[in-house]
Amino acid sequence: MPTKITYEVSFGGKVYSVMVEEASENYYRVEVNGQKHEVDTRKVDGRIYSFIIDGKSCQAWQEESEEKGNELSVCLDGRIWRAKVENADRISVRKPRSRKVSSRHILSAPIPGKVVEVSVSEGDKVKKGQGLIVLEAMKMENELASPSDGEVKEISVKEGETVEAGMGLLVVEENKAK
Question: Within 10 Å of residue 76's Cβ, how many Cβ atoms?
């Protein structure tokens, strides 16, 4: 079943609804405010991507920093455009799904993907918002953060493993003393 993700993109003072469906490796069906496009993409280097959109070539690079938020710079016809990208799945990643069972949080995958990094080990002390696991979905890396201050009690996945949405990844037990 193809993976679909819907983004909200602010571009040139307007907000667009962008639905992306992975049709095959490097090939996507993209719908922007109801208008459909065929997109072929390749990762050139680091965070630089090359696209062919409806037969027209362009490049984009990803800039993620606290000052810039989720900005994407696109070079089209020699002109650089900046877009800010948000979506429900990315928001879920920033505020990961977790189920609280007593003082324990079970961190679950918000989307299906591949575990590319586990940044902690069982027994590690963590702070609320600290990155714990990085999932890759549709060639984008999504960092899952700790839902609370506490200690990592259990890790159910390892790097390279494929996970489904809703699958429990690890358990963080809240600090009891404040």
Answer: 14
pLDDT digits (tens, 9 = 90+) for 64-105: 544 455 666 666 555 667 777 765 444 333 334 444 444 777
Give me the amino acid identity at 156. Answer: S
Nearest-angstrom CA–CA distance, 145 and 117 = 12
Residue partners of 49: CB distance under 8 A and separation at least 6: 41, 42, 43, 59, 60, 61, 62
Residues 60 and 14 in one domain: yes
* Host domain of residue 67: 4-88
71 vs 2, more confident? 71
CA-based nearest residue to 131, from 121, 140, 143 = 143
* Prediction pTM value: 0.45
- Could you give the strand order of the β-sheet that contains 98-101, starting from the edge strand earlier in sequence? 98-101, 104-108, 168-174, 150-155, 125-126
CATH number at residue 164: 2.40.50.100
Q: Do 66 and 26 have their domain in common?
A: yes
Count of domains for the chain: 2
* pLDDT number for residue 90: 44
Coil, helix or strand at residue 94: helix
For the stretch 100-133, pLDDT in tens is 444 777 787 777 889 999 999 999 999 988 989 9
